[in-house]
Amino acid sequence: MDTFLHKFPKLGKLIIFLMDLILVHVGFVLAYIVRFGNNLPVKNFQPYYELIPVITLLSIILFHIYGLYNTLRKNYNDIVFSLIISLSLLQILTVVSTFFIRQFAFPRSIFGIALIIQIGLLSLWRYIVQNAIKHAHGEKNIMIVGEKDAADKIAKKLITSSRGWFEIKYIISPEKYDEIIKHFDEIDAVYICNDVKEDIKTRLFYDSMKFKKHLFVVPNFRDILMVKSQFVQFDDVPVVSINSLSLTEEDKFIKRVFDVVFSIIGVVITLPLMAIIALIIKLTSPGPVIYKQTRITENGKKFKVYKFRTMY
Fold this sequence. Notes:
By secondary structure, the chain is an alpha/beta fold. It contains ten helices and eight strands. The radius of gyration is 28 Å and the shape is flat.
């Protein structure tokens, strides 16, 4: 699972999202079984059945509000706390919903039982997920670049709030740039303290992208607007996380599917026009209609390009 989450983060998030919703509803069903046994009374189960869309929508909104879909490098205790708050609010809002649709046969005891079961199921599920994410993205060797006081301060925060995610490999002054570059092969990520000068910060940004190092920086306005960046927090310090600007394996797959599907659609739509163009080329000039050319991909692999001949 950890390898899957590393290669396909978006698909992994979708699976986590769907499993969360499934477990919320499993919690309600199990609560009915605990309350009534195997012989579920239809009049009591019908209100839950009718409220499934409402419960699903409320779960999505509450889980999003309480940050349960952005748990990378979050403490597991914080995740469980967010689950308890969001699931408790879910029960309250669902009770309120029963009054709006006048479903008074929904047993109130179900909500208390469901809450306990859901907290247990989702806490266990998120423990598995968090460990898988930690194996996929954690234990990165990180270099902190900054003056001593600022660097020591952030090092303490990383140790207390990001245990299992990072190992502090080096703390280096921004003035020792040659030493920073010398150790780039030994690290996975760079943290830039807010006392680093803009020119050095810019050099670090370009070198981090060049050597494909994960970058963390205390943001200014320019950093906030950075493409492919996201906010994370180390203790009480908000930072911008910038990974490689290149496409992930998942992005490449999606792009490939997109290219193939829309290329086929484009060819089908323009086929009559291309037939007319081919006929005009054949009637107005000697030589073949199609021109073939060899091109080279990013990795040096050769491929053929076919296009209409425009010269002779």
